[in-house]
Amino acid sequence: MTAARLLRWLAVVGWSVTPAAWGAVAVGGAAAPAPAGEVVELPPFEVFAPGKPPPPWQYVALANIEVLSRCSSSLTREFIEAHGRLTQLLQLLLPADLQVKFAAPQIIILTDQTTTPSSSKETVEGFTPAAKAPADGRATRERVVRFMPNLRLNDTDAVAVYAILDSQGFNGERLMLTANHVRDVLERRTPPLPIWYLVGLLTLYQDIHYLHDALEFEPFGWVTPAETERLRIDPEYPRTLLPLRELFAGVGRRDTPDAGEAARLWRMQSALLVRWAMDGDDPARRAGFWNFVRRTATEGASEAALQACLGLSYADLRDRLSDYLPGTLRNRLRLRAAKLVPLPPFTLQLATPNEIGRIKGDWERMEITYVKARHPQYADKYAVQAHRTLTEAYEKGARDPRLLGVIGLYEVEVGNGAAARSYLEDAARAKVVRPRVYLELARLRYAEAMAIPAAGEQRLSATQANRVLEPLSMAWTQLPPLVDTFFLAAEVWARSASSLGKTHFDLLDEGRRLFPNHSALTYYAALLKATHGDEAGAAAEIAAGLQAAPTAASRVKFEQLRDALQRRNPASARP
Q1: How far apart are CA 155 and CA 225, in angstroms?
Q2: For residue 164, how many other CB atoms are within 10 A of its CB?
Q3: Whole domain around residue 159: which residue ranges?
Q4: pLDDT tens, position by position, 285-315
Q5: Contact present, 188 and 480 (Cβ < 8 Å)
Q6: CA 70 to CA 77: how far, in whole Å?
């Protein structure tokens, strides 16, 4: 079971502030009651009236973000400073090394609610089809189009945020990170964090408050309201806690919030453990807990690891949690930053055509994927918008390799591989920092090679294989690691006439370490090791694959491979 399925019910889209400062803005710029018809929520879409030029874009790049803003300098600065403060506060819950990291800076696009046309009458009319009377005379449901005022979008190697700010009511002190943002930071980290920690932290996060230099959690709630009240009144009231071995193994968990008392107990005890680790003035306990999370991310939970990191046995920790529980039901928990480090001085400048095209075009490219998955009938409109933005920058002479990479990714997004190829090749030659550029280039080279496989019988020559793998070697040096770079390499090796050795197996092992739950990658690793002489390694991969196989069909594949290996060499088929 994946973390994504288990956490889906916790997802909240985009950034969030308190409703008074930045509420859910419907088309027209104000909150509106839900209509009776179909509601289509779309990402922001800009259409400016003829003869009314838009406000100029301002640009600034800091350590890990790039900001493109049509807001005033003061409002932009306030948002950037609030973002820096939130980034530091997040480390109270999750040290930086346990968060996902990106080589490319995060994109932030800011516009002012008073000048942004994404809710204009003209825009809505452009997305709403003309009403037609049905042939049978029956009434039709009205379709209402709304444009979201803020949204966070992810690519496999990038993050982008679009925010429409209210210049009259915005207050950076009220800005907070949503559960979706925190979930993404947790879930995309490699190797994956233990599921009990992800669920425990996000369960706590539902009751969080942001202060200027602190985070505060509401009093805890136990498995049921009735039990919570009894324990609040009588700390000696009996309570049930899972043995720690079962907690770390995820015994009883399911992927819905209404999965019954056993699942709720597992979820709430996971949250209790995370809260206990962060509570109090004992830095050694917090440091030991983070070390335990790091170890369990790579080697799984064990009592020996717990003893080494926290000096506690499973039974000891369960007793600590039992004693700690009653007080949490009455008390808030406040985590205060030791010191907030101010951002270095920065200056907003007028954005160049390259900066506008690259950043805005990348955002609009990501919107295409988002709309395709939810309302595909509108995807072409977003594709046209992205093409216009990128083409305008290119025609003005912008040749930044980062822009070329974005144009190449856009062409991939719209299914135009032939056009994508030259842009991706140029960006790769310039060693652009964007791992997906190299992955998509490798995919195009692979498709070209497989169209005319030089070794016959759908097999690639060594020259063909190396040409496909060349861009992947650059992708492996950039963050975040992409599972498809390892998977594509494994597929190329499986179709290559070349022999494999330790270097190849080491790379497969690195992919398996980073993505231990990727069943297809595990299968390829087992197949390649069995084919190229590492039968003991193949048997170990098969055993891991059988244990983690997500479906019966994938389990059958591992069983067939195990049986074939057993027939060939009975002794080597045992891991």
Answers
A1: 40
A2: 25
A3: 3-29+40-120+144-178+345-349
A4: 999 999 999 999 999 999 999 999 999 999 9
A5: yes
A6: 12
